[in-house]
Amino acid sequence: MDETDYQESMLQKIMTAIHKKSIDPTLLSEIKDEAAWTKAKKRFVAEGRKDGIRKGMEKGVLMMAKNMKEAGVIVETIMEVTGLPMEQIESL
Fold first, then answer.
1. Percent of the chain scored above 90 by pLDDT?
2. Residue 73 and residue 92: Cα distance in Å, rounded?
3. Is the model's pLDDT at 3 over the cut of 70?
4. How far is CA 85 from CA 2, 54, 88, 92, in A?
5. 82, 56 in Cβ contact below 8 A?
6. What is the number of other CB atoms lying within 10 angstroms of the CB of residue 70?
7. pLDDT at 13 (0 to 100)
8. Which helix or strand (DSSP H or E) is residue 16 part of?
9. What is the reported pTM?
10. How many CB atoms lie within 10 A of CB 89?
């Protein structure tokens, strides 16, 4: 392993501790906190992406329903295609 490839301070601290063959409890705590934060960030990004896709799909369905309504498509057909309730379609 080429240690010069890892410039992050946290990784440098870990490698130093490995060379010393001991890890200070404070450093160990920092490592665990960093790992937990990294895991949390990945989860937040994934959740945000899913939420964004869901909201985008909802907006797309509403836009499609509105366009269909403006084009004169009957409400029952719009309901069948979009899955939206009649009240929501009529309010567009």
1. 57
2. 13
3. no
4. 61, 18, 6, 11
5. no
6. 9
7. 78
8. helix 9-20
9. 0.56
10. 19
